[in-house]
């Protein structure tokens, strides 16, 4: 008898718990209602071959093609070798501005780096790309003259 009572109690609890469960569908996140729009003239730049040890820069131009002010809340580089500079003030509708990306060409080899722009536009993120190849810098006459001179060891008789 106790087993039957325990089974009925268990079924009653399960039945009641499912009747109190949420029956509404999860709401989708609200789409951005911003009317700002971020439009770049180009989102990728190839430096080609650049000499090692020489920082290089490129300026990405963009326009607010929306109807409300565009605010860049963050501009993040994918590594410490790339430094972005961007406007901190809002860009009016129809206004243009630039983001300057400077790459420190310290390490030899092919590189591809990204700069992520976060704004109040929809979509709120845009990725810019810089790429190229760092090659050994050619030795200059001044560098050759400044290089230490190796002396031959004296001959032993």
Count of alpha and pi helical runs: 2
- Ranges where pLDDT stays below 50 over 5 or more residues in a row are 18-31
Mean pLDDT: 81
Cα gyration radius (Å): 31 Å
Based on helices, strands and strand pairing, what is the structural class? alpha+beta
Distance between the termini: 114 Å
Across the major sheet, the strand order is: 1-3-6-5
What name goes with the CATH superfamily of the domain at 38-134?
Immunoglobulins
Number of DSSP strand runs? 8
**What is the element string, with H for helices and E for strands?**
HEEEEEEEEH
User: How does the overall form come out from the CA principal axes?
Assistant: flat
CATH hierarchy, class of the domain at 38-134: Mainly Beta
Task: Please describe the biggest sheet, giving its number of strands, its sense, and whether it closes into a barrel.
Answer: 4 strands, antiparallel
Percentage of residues in DSSP E strands: 35-45%
The CATH architecture assignment of the domain at 38-134 turns out to be Sandwich
The helix fraction, in percent, is: 10-25%
CATH fold-level name of the domain at 38-134: Immunoglobulin-like
């Amino acid at each position: 008898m106790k087993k039957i009572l325990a089974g009925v109690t268990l079924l009653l609890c399960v039945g009641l718990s499912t009747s109190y469960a949420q029956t509404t569908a999860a709401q989708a996140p609200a789409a951005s209602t911003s009317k700002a729009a971020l439009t770049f003239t180009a989102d990728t730049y190839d430096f080609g071959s650049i000499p090692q040890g020489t920082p290089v820069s490129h300026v990405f131009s963009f326009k607010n093609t929306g109807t409300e002010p565009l605010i860049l809340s963050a501009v993040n580089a994918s590594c410490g070798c790339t430094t972005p500079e961007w406007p901190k003030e809002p860009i009016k509708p129809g206004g243009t501005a630039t983001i300057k990306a400077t790459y420190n060409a310290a390490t030899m080899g092919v590189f591809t780096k990204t700069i992520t722009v976060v704004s109040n536009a929809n979509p709120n993120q845009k990725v810019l790309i810089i790429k190229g190849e760092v090659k050994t810098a050619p030795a200059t006459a001044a560098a050759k003259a400044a290089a230490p001179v190796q002396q031959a060891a004296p001959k032993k008789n």
